[in-house]
Amino acid sequence: MLSATSRSTIKKGAHKARTQLELLHSIIDESLIAHIAISEETGPVVIPMLAWRVDDYVYIHGANNSRLMRNLKKGNSTCLTFTLFDGWVLARSAFHHSAHYRSAVVFGQFTAIEERAEKDRLLNHFIEQIAPSRCEEIRLSSDKELDATMLLAIPLTEASVKVSENDVADDEQDLSIPVWAGFIPYKTVVGPLVASETMTDTPKAPDYSMAYGDRWQNA
């Protein structure tokens, strides 16, 4: 269960708050994109980054000279947001149109993973998460490549989850308006694979469907 803090307690739309740790994990694992906030001399900046979870930590990686990575390596406070959009809610009034979504916000500070073998393990974990068993076939990172990459970790000790999945919230006096009300679902689909133009032979296409469940499509 998520622990509420002054920053993670949801006040607006509190009925949409969720406290299940498993739900936080699932939102991060499905999204894999975090919008990360930093404060610079010129003002706040929010940058989208690939992000992945291993147990109770979220990891990001980037070049050593990245302004975002250098800022976060200092231990500055930040927040990460993950959002999965599930569809539009169409009401009988303009005011009550809304959306279905699942979102998570993580607060805290990043720390750097410096040990080369651990950095390699965690970066390969990300590859395995998006393409199971791929690390058995590809060339793994060289020491030079690992040294050129900064890897940062943030713990999931302070986070909030919000889910909007309610029915249309029309006012009682609007229920008699003769207009359709309901939902426009959005679904993310994955696949099928598209081969690179650089391929000169025709190895059998791998099967990564196990990583995506019912989101995978073959054609």
From TrEMBL:
Annotated coiled-coil positions are none
- One matching Pfam family, short form? Pyridox_ox_2
UniProt-listed PANTHER family: 5-NITROIMIDAZOLE ANTIBIOTICS RESISTANCE PROTEIN, NIMA-FAMILY-RELATED PROTEIN-RELATED, FLAVIN-NUCLEOTIDE-BINDING PROTEIN
| Superkingdom of source | Bacteria
Which protein are we looking at? Flavin-nucleotide-binding protein
Q: Which organism is it from?
A: Vibrio scophthalmi
